[in-house]
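Field log, afternoon session.

UNIT: design team B
ACTIVITY: writing a sequence onto a fixed backbone
BACKBONE:
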């Protein structure tokens, strides 16, 4: 299956950027970003995801960071139709009142099974579904 360029590709990239900003520089020994972000968010342990250079945040900031991680995870959903539009992302980021639906487990970002960083293995609950060439 070949990847298709859609309007939601920028949304996916934005989600990766948000998660990278929150988590800070990644060491090779850390788990892959999307998987680790999902685990931290789903277990309500966002503080484990945060950049180690960051001081321990106050409760209010921790809630805001959890919201940003949730939005980032929505942006990296496997299917483009499951990703929000950029206008919806902006609304979610700017609103304290907006209801944000929970994301599904994102695609796997572990490229070791394909041997190439230009390919991503789609993962649905731990079951490999398909490989898409992203180049």
């Amino acid at each position: 299956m070949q990847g298709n360029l859609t309007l939601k590709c920028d949304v996916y990239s934005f989600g990766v950027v948000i998660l990278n900003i929150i988590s800070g520089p990644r060491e090779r020994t850390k788990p892959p970003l999307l998987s680790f972000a999902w685990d931290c968010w789903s277990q309500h342990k966002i503080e484990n995801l945060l950049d180690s250079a960051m001081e321990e945040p106050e409760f209010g900031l921790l809630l805001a960071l959890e919201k940003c991680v949730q939005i980032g995870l929505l942006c990296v959903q496997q299917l483009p139709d499951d990703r929000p539009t950029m206008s919806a992302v902006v609304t979610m980021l700017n609103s304290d009142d907006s209801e944000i639906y929970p994301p599904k487990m994102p695609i796997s970002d572990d490229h070791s099974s394909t041997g190439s960083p230009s390919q991503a293995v789609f993962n649905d609950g731990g079951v490999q579904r398909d490989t898409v060439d992203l180049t």
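LOG NOTE: The CA atoms of residues 27 and 33 lie 10 Å apart.
NEXT ACTIVITY: expression trials, pending approval
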